[in-house]
Structure formats: structure tokens, C-alpha cells
């Protein structure tokens, strides 16, 4: 399937409306031959036209452009395209024609604009054509997040540190990471940790220079892939550089049981982490083998129990719906197993097929027809007393579904809320890090980014440049000498 766009109103939104139905379609600048499958969207001054050709059958519709600005015409074209593709494919997407990744942000922004709850519901159900169930979930999350966002101050920030190493590469993973089983990768770990610790010190200095108040810390990637001594070096640096007792939250990913032992769990606890993640993804040994994991479901259970024994009292567990070889019954069993362990957080992701992952690169994607039924199993979480507290969507997610964090009351991960709703700056350290600077003041303030080098070797070799870029934090905030009330940039929820 190819996507061909013509005219000013036939741009990003039209392309991604088509991708709701054909996520693997290729964007083409020229019309293919008369037999190729395609989606065509045309926006001219006197004509809006959409055409779909699939398996030799062509369907098309046209109309005069509506009165109004460019955004009005863009929406009209996308609505035509969406309606046609619903009919051609027989698919009713759960989020309708919404293309944005942050549905909950739309609710926050509409409330800030003074819209009534009725108007917000109408925006979701009629303008976007979301299902009532998806809107109800987004609204309940927005309600739960509201007091957290109201407490956020203009100069609050969080700090993220990334460890781009792993025991093995999962087939669905598209992150930049090196497997520590490889000799050349192992040689990178020590200098990488040294640089990361220096960057964290520079990050703290940059935050102080900009008068930022650090609220949460998050060590992501796979921190336990480094050895115990290196983990202690990293954790002690965090304790030295940041006022841990003053933090709202300090999360460390301990996700892989094949590299997380009792010693490392004790180090994480010793240095003040208040929240950890132990991420099974599935409790099926067969599915674990399918995705390239080198551990068993029993290893996950043992790791979780060890974490409890050493004193961790706020644990998250991730599961993924749609992994190759999984079934509805299998996913439901994994979810129930996680619930029976009684962690404080359970995050349910829908598998996303990303171009850099082995599932796509090696064309080993399984039959994902049952993924929606897997996601429906989340009713088990509600019955067990968990409630959804953050939600986001990704391009390429199976069947246009979503990722949802569930928690027991009072155990919301604040970092997840802050980063997803973009309420404050995230200062990022490590290879592939992306610092997101959120302007204080006006609700529609701008966001700027400072990028670190992507690969560990480049990060180490060009570390002086990484440190020099920290100056950008103060330069950004120097533009805002008088910060107003805590507000957010506008959400991008699609047309």
C-alpha cells in the first residue's frame, strides 16, 4: 500500500490518518501504476478528493472544501479519508481518527481553555470518533492526574539517566542498546558509567544555574546490566549529586531478572530508590524464548520475591500484549500472575512494530489478530483494585491501541505523569538522551530539546561536546526571568 498526498491540506494528518488503517504503507511522491494499492488524498482550492485502490477495487469520494481556515479544510479532508477507510477495511479504530500520542493531555488543555465536560466529551466522541470506553478511560486518568498537575510549579524538573546495555536484545526492541555478552560491548561499560556519572554532576550544575527544582529521578534502560561495583558507582553518584530525601520519587529499572540479583537489589535500596520495575513482559517460557529473553518465568518470580525480601515496597511490572506466539488465554494468565504477586504498579503495553526492531527487520511478525482481546483482559486489573493513571499511544502500535499504567491508589509514578503530560522539563543524561526543556509561563509555551549522541561509543568519544551542550539549559531559562503560573504547552491530538 502506498500513500500519495497532494495539496497544502494533505500533509502530516492525512498521512497518519491513512496509517491508522495501513501502518506499514509507504509514503510516495509519485503516483504508482494503475494496479498498485494506494491511498490518495488531494486538497485543491475547489476540490477535496480521497481515493482508495485495494486488490483491484477502487473507491473514491469528492466534495467542495468547507469555508474556514486551513485547519478546517485539513480536518474535512481527514474526516473524508477516515470515513472511507472505515468502510473499505471494516475497521472501527478505538481512538477514532485521533493521531496524537497524548489523549489525556487534550482533556487537560480543553479544561484549561474553559471547555465544559460536555464539550470535551463531544470533542472525543464526535470530532475524533473515539469509542465511549476509550474516552471514559482518558477522562478518569485526567481526573486522577489533576491534583498532581495542580501541584506542579513552573521551575520543577526531573532527571533521567540511561543505561544502554542489556543481557540480550528482545525482538520487539528498537532502543539503542548493546548486549553485554559481547566482548567489545563489555569493554564500553566502565568508561560509559564514568562518563554518565560526570554528566550527572554537570546536569545538577545546569539545574542549579537555571534555578530548577528537581522533583524526581529515573534511571532507565537496563541499569542492572552493569556489574555490582558499577551500579554502586552510579547509585552513589546520584546520592552525592541530588538531595534524595527532598525528592518526590526515585525510580530504578531492575527489569531483567537475568541480570538482577540480590546484591544489586540491595544496592538500589541502600542508595535511596523509592520505586523499581521488574518487567516480565510475559510469564510464558515459550513466549520469552520467542522474543529472545534468556530467562524463565520462574526467574521473574524469584527476582520479585527477592526484591520484596530486601525491602522494596513499590514495584512496577510491565506486560506486553501481542508478543509473538502469545494467545488471549496466555496473556490473561500472565496478567493474573502479575496481579497475584500484588505489585503496586502494573503497566500494560500493546506491542508496537518499530522499523528498527527484529520483528520488523527480520519479518518475523506473528498473527496479531487477538491483541485487542488481550487488552480487554485489563478488566482483571480493575477488579483487583488497580486504576489507570497514565496513558500514551505510539505510531505503529497494533490495532491503534494504547499503553496504560495501572496502580494501586496512592502509587502513581509521578515521573510517568510529568513526562507524558509535559508539565515540566526533563533533563536527560546518557547515550541517546533527549533533554526536553518546557517553557514556563504561557500554557502554549514552546518546548526545546537538547540531544545527546545516540551510540555509547560516540557518547564516550565526544563527551566534551555533551558537557558543552548543558549550557543550553540555562540559556533556555534565561529567556523567562519572570515565570508565571504552572501551565502546559498545547497537546497535539490530531486534527
Overall geometry:
globular
The whole-angstrom Rg is 23 Å
SS field, number of helical segments? 18
List the strand order in the largest sheet: 14-15-13-12-11-10-9-6-16
Strand fraction = 15-25%
Question: How many angstroms does the end-to-end distance come to?
Answer: 23 Å
Average pLDDT figure: 88
Q: What about the largest sheet?
A: 9 strands, mixed
Question: Residue ranges: pLDDT <50 for 5 or more in a row?
Answer: 356-366, 484-491
Helix content: 25-40%
Query: What is the SS-derived class?
Result: alpha/beta
Q: Would you report the number of β strands?
A: 18
How would you explain this protein's 3D organization?
This protein is 40% helix and 20% strand. The strands form four sheets. The protein has a nine-stranded mixed β-sheet, sandwiched between helices. Strands 2-1-3-4-5 form a five-stranded mixed β-sheet, covered by helices on one side. It has helices at residues 12-21, 70-89, 103-112, 117-127, 132-151, 183-209, 228-241, 262-270, 285-290, 297-309, 328-341, 358-361, 371-376, 379-383, 414-421, 456-461, 463-469, 471-477, and strands at residues 2-6, 26-28, 38-44, 47-54, 57-63, 156-163, 165-166, 178-179, 213-221, 249-253, 275-277, 315-321, 345-350, 387-392, 403-407, 425-429, 434-438, 447-451. The protein has 495 residues and is of the alpha/beta class. It is built from 18 helices and 18 strands.
Amino acid at each position: 500500500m502506498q500513500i500519495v498526498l497532494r495539496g497544502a491540506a494533505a500533509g502530516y494528518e492525512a498521512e497518519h490518518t491513512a496509517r491508522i488503517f495501513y501502518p506499514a504503507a509507504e509514503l510516495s511522491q509519485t503516483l504508482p501504476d494503475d494496479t498498485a494499492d494506494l491511498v490518495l488524498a488531494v486538497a485543491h482550492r475547489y476540490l477535496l478528493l480521497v481515493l482508495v485502490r485495494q486488490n483491484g477495487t477502487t473507491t473514491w469520494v469528492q466534495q467542495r472544501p468547507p469555508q474556514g481556515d486551513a485547519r478546517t479544510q485539513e480536518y474535512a479532508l481527514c474526516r473524508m479519508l477516515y470515513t472511507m477507510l472505515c468502510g473499505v477495511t471494516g475497521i472501527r479504530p478505538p481512538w477514532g481518527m485521533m493521531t496524537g500520542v497524548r489523549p489525556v493531555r487534550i482533556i487537560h488543555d480543553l479544561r484549561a481553555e474553559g471547555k465544559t465536560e460536555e464539550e470535551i466529551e463531544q470533542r472525543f466522541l464526535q470530532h475524533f470518533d473515539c469509542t465511549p470506553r476509550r474516552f471514559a478511560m482518558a477522562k478518569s486518568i485526567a481526573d486522577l492526574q489533576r491534583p498532581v498537575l495542580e501541584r506542579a510549579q513552573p521551575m520543577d524538573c526531573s532527571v533521567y539517566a540511561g543505561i544502554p546495555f542489556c543481557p540480550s536484545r528482545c525482538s520487539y526492541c528498537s532502543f539503542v542498546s548493546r548486549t553485554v555478552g559481547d566482548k567489545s560491548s563489555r569493554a564500553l561499560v566502565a568508561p560509559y558509567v564514568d562518563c554518565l556519572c560526570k554528566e550527572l554532576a554537570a546536569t545538577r550544575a545546569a539545574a542549579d544555574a537555571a534555578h530548577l527544582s528537581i522533583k524526581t529521578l529515573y534511571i532507565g534502560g537496563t541499569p542492572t546490566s552493569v556489574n555490582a561495583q558499577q551500579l554502586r558507582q552510579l547509585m552513589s553518584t546520584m546520592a552525592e549529586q541530588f538531595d534524595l530525601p527532598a525528592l518526590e520519587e526515585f525510580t530504578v529499572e531492575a527489569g531483567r531478572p537475568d541480570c538482577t540479583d540480590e546484591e544489586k537489589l540491595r544496592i538500589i535500596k541502600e542508595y535511596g530508590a523509592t520505586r523499581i520495575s521488574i518487567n516480565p513482559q510475559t510469564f510464558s517460557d515459550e513466549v520469552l524464548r520467542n522474543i529472545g529473553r534468556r530467562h524463565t518465568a520462574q526467574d521473574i518470580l524469584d527476582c520479585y520475591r527477592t526484591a520484596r525480601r530486601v525491602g522494596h515496597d513499590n514495584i512496577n511490572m510491565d506486560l506486553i500484549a501481542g508478543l509473538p506466539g502469545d494467545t488471549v488465554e496466555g496473556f490473561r494468565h500472565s496478567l493474573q500472575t502479575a496481579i497475584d504477586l500484588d505489585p503496586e504498579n502494573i503497566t500494560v503495553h500493546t506491542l508496537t512494530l518499530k522499523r528498527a526492531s527484529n520483528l520488523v527487520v527480520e519479518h518475523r511478525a506473528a498473527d496479531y489478530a487477538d491483541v485487542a482481546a488481550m487488552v480487554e483482559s485489563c478488566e482483571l486489573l480493575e477488579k483487583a483494585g488497580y486504576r489507570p493513571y497514565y496513558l500514551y499511544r505510539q505510531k505503529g502500535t497494533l490495532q491503534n491501541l494504547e499503553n496504560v499504567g495501572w496502580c494501586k491508589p496512592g502509587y502513581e509514578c509521578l515521573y510517568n505523569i510529568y513526562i507524558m503530560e509535559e508539565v515540566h522539563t526533563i533533563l536527560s543524561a546518557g547515550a541517546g538522551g533527549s533533554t526536553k526543556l518546557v517553557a514556563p509561563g504561557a500554557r502554549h509555551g514552546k518546548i526545546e530539546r537538547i540531544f545527546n549522541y545516540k551510540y555509547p561509543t560516540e557518547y564516550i568519544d565526544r563527551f566534551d561536546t555533551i558537557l558543552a551542550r548543558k549550557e543550553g539549559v540555562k540559556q533556555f531559562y534565561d529567556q523567562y526571568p519572570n515565570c508565571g503560573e504552572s501551565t502546559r504547552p498545547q497537546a497535539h491530538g490530531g486534527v
